[in-house]
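C-alpha cells in:
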C-alpha cells in the first residue's frame, strides 16, 4: 500500500536520528568519565540507556 511507504520512511528516519543521538550521548559520557566527572558520566549514560530503549521499542 502507498501509505505504508511513508510510515516505513518515517520509522527509518526516527531510527537513524535515535542512533545518532545514542552515539553522541555515549561519546559525551566517555569524555565525562575521562575527565573524572563520574556523576555526569552516570547521568549521560542513563540518557543513552533511555534512547537505547526507545530504539528497541521501534523493532
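Residues out:
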Amino acid at each position: 500500500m502507498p501509505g505504508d511507504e511513508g510510515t516505513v520512511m518515517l520509522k527509518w528516519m526516527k531510527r537513524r536520528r535515535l542512533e545518532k543521538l545514542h552515539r553522541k550521548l555515549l561519546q559525551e559520557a566517555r569524555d565525562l568519565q575521562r575527565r573524572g566527572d563520574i556523576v555526569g558520566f552516570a547521568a549521560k549514560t542513563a540518557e543513552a540507556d533511555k534512547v537505547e530503549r526507545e530504539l528497541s521499542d521501534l523493532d
